[in-house]
Design brief:
mainly alpha; three-stranded antiparallel β-sheet; 15 strands; 41% helix; globular
C-alpha cells in the first residue's frame, strides 16, 4: 500500500473528506507487483476517457525506438494518461467544451490542464478529434477566467459551489470556483496553450469574442496585481495550521515596494509566497504576454490588444532586470526566487514549473543564458533548501509535501534542459526507479525509498515524462537506442 508522507497527509485527508478524490472516476489497473512484469497499466480501451489516433500512432512510433523495455513501458503508460483518465468532453452553445481534471482531485486547474495538453500539441494538425479537445479546453479556460480571474481551480458545473474545504476560505468564493489561490502562472499557462495551439494549427476556431474577453481580463488582472494604486481587490485567508495555506496582513500578503513587478499570493505549488514578487512567475508572465500578443495579432487582427500585452511585458521585464536578481555568494548574479522590492530576497527553488530551473521549458529563459545557467546550477545544490540527495535519487522538492520528498518533475526538467549525455542517462535511471512499481510518475517520492510516494494519479507529471521521451527521440535518439 502506498505510504503517505506525514507532512502531506493533512492535505490529502481534507480532500478525501470533502469528496474530491476522483480515483473511482476511471477504472485504473491494479498496482504492478514489480517492474519486471511490465504489465499494461493503461485503463481498458472501453474505460478510456478520450482516444486520439495520432497519439496512439505516436506511442507506437516512439516506443519502437526505445531499447530499454522498462523505459518503453513507462512511456506507453504515462504519455496518454491525460487522455485516458482526465478528459470529459461536451458542448456549450454548440461549441466543444473540455473539462480536464488533474488526476486524483476532481477539479480543473488552469495551470495543470494547460500543461497536461501541451504534450500533444504537435499532433493537432493530424487529428480532428484532438483539435476539438484543444478548442474545448481553450474555450473552457476563457469561461473560467470570466467567472473569476483570481481562482486557480474550477468546478465542472459553473453554478456549483466548491466541494473542497476552500468553500470556507476568507475570500470571495463564487459559484464555479473550486479554489481561489491567486497564482500568476495560472493565467500565463492559458496564454501559452493558446499560442501553442495557434502556432501548430493556425486554426482560428477557439479565438472568438468570448476568448478575447477572457484574455483581456487576464491581462487586466496581471496589471491590477502590480498594485500601483493600492492593494487591489484580492484577499485570501484560510483557517489552517500550516502557514503555507494563508496570507498575512488581512489576506494581502507581505508588504512590497511597488516597482512594476506583479504580485502573486501563491506559488505554482499552491503554497503561499513569502515575498509577493515571485520571480519565476514574473519571468513567465513576460514570455506569456508576448505569446498572447502574437495570437491577438495573427488570429484576430487585434493590434490594440496585442500592444496592451506587449506594453505590460516590457514593463515587467524592466522591473525584473532592476529587482529580480541577487548575489550568488561567489561574485556573480542569479535570479532570486522571491523578492519584495525593498532589497530583500530569498533563494530557493521549487519543483513546480514555473520554477527557476524550469524557465527554458516555458520560453521564459534561454538554456544558453549564463545568468540562467548559474541560477539552475545553484538550485541543484545545497544552497537550495529543497534540494535533496538520497540513496534513490537526487532532485528538488518543495514545502508542499515536506522535506526529503523529491518531485520527478524536477528530474524531468533537469534532463530536458541538459545537453550532457551522462546527466540525461542518470536522470532516466532515477525516473525509472521512482515509480514504486506502478508504471507512472508521481507528485513526489522519498529520496531513499521510492515506495513512499504521494499522488498515485498525477497527470501533469506523466505528461511531462512523455515530453522528455519525445524530446530525446528528436534531440538525442542514441540515448533511447
Amino acid at each position: 500500500m502506498t505510504t503517505i508522507n506525514p507532512m502531506n497527509f493533512r492535505r490529502r485527508e481534507i480532500l478525501a473528506g470533502a469528496g474530491v478524490l476522483a480515483l473511482s472516476a476511471v477504472t485504473l489497473p491494479p498496482r504492478a507487483a514489480g517492474a519486471s512484469t511490465l504489465q499494461d497499466r493503461r485503463p481498458p480501451k472501453a474505460d478510456r476517457r478520450f482516444t486520439s489516433k495520432a497519439v496512439e500512432a505516436e506511442i507506437a512510433r516512439v516506443k519502437a525506438k526505445i531499447r530499454d523495455p522498462e523505459l518503453g513501458w513507462l512511456f506507453e503508460n504515462c504519455y496518454p494518461n491525460t487522455l485516458d483518465t482526465t478528459v470529459k468532453m461536451g458542448e456549450v452553445d454548440g461549441k466543444p467544451d473540455a473539462f480536464v481534471i488533474t488526476g486524483d482531485i476532481n477539479a480543473l486547474w488552469l495551470r495543470d490542464s494547460s500543461a497536461q495538453l501541451q504534450t500533444y500539441v504537435h499532433l493537432t494538425p493530424q487529428d480532428t478529434d484532438l483539435r476539438r479537445l484543444f478548442c474545448g479546453l481553450i474555450q473552457r479556460q476563457a469561461r473560467c477566467i470570466l467567472i473569476d480571474p483570481y481562482a486557480n481551480a474550477y468546478m465542472e458545473d459553473p453554478n456549483a459551489r466548491s466541494s473542497l474545504p476552500a468553500i470556507s476560505d476568507k475570500t470571495q468564493m463564487k459559484p464555479g470556483v473550486a479554489e481561489r489561490k491567486w497564482e500568476i502562472d495560472s493565467l500565463c499557462y492559458t496564454m501559452r496553450l493558446a499560442h501553442s495551439y495557434w502556432t501548430a494549427t493556425k486554426d482560428k476556431t477557439p479565438f472568438d469574442a468570448l476568448w478575447a474577453k477572457g484574455a483581456a481580463l487576464a491581462v487586466a488582472t496581471l496589471r491590477e496585481q502590480q498594485r500601483k494604486d493600492g492593494p487591489g481587490p484580492y484577499q485570501f485567508q484560510r483557517v489552517d495550521k500550516s502557514p503555507t495555506e494563508t496570507l498575512m496582513f488581512g489576506g494581502f500578503g507581505a508588504p512590497t515596494r511597488k516597482v512594476g513587478l506583479i504580485h502573486s499570493g501563491f506559488r505554482p505549488s499552491d503554497d503561499a509566497c513569502l515575498y509577493p514578487f515571485l520571480i519565476p512567475s514574473n519571468l513567465f508572465a513576460v514570455s506569456a504576454l508576448r505569446m498572447l500578443a502574437q495570437v491577438h495579432n495573427e488570429a484576430r487582427g487585434d493590434a490594440a490588444a496585442a500592444q496592451d500585452c506587449a506594453a505590460l511585458a516590457a514593463e515587467v521585464e524592466t522591473a525584473l532586470r532592476a529587482y529580480g536578481q541577487m548575489d550568488d555568494g561567489q561574485g556573480g548574479k542569479v535570479w532570486a526566487f522571491e523578492v519584495d522590492g525593498y532589497g530583500n530576497a530569498i533563494f530557493m527553488d521549487d519543483a513546480n514549473v514555473p520554477s527557476l530551473s524550469g524557465l527554458p521549458l516555458l520560453g521564459a529563459a534561454d538554456r544558453r543564458d549564463p545568468l540562467w545557467q548559474r541560477t539552475a546550477a545553484l538550485a541543484w545544490s545545497q544552497r537550495n533548501p529543497y534540494f535533496f540527495s538520497g540513496s534513490a535519487a537526487q532532485g528538488i522538492g518543495g514545502p508542499h509535501v515536506g522535506m526529503d520528498m523529491i518531485w520527478p518533475m524536477s528530474i524531468i526538467t533537469r534532463a530536458l534542459n541538459s545537453d550532457d549525455d551522462a546527466t540525461i542517462r542518470q536522470c532516466l535511471t532515477w525516473l525509472k526507479g521512482s515509480h514504486g512499481g506502478t508504471g507512472f510518475m508521481h507528485e513526489s517520492f522519498h529520496k531513499d525509498n521510492p515506495a513512499n510516494y504521494t499522488r498515485p494519479w498525477f497527470s501533469w507529471a506523466n505528461g511531462l515524462f512523455g515530453d522528455l521521451i519525445l524530446d530525446l527521440e528528436r534531440r538525442k535518439p542514441h540515448l533511447l537506442r
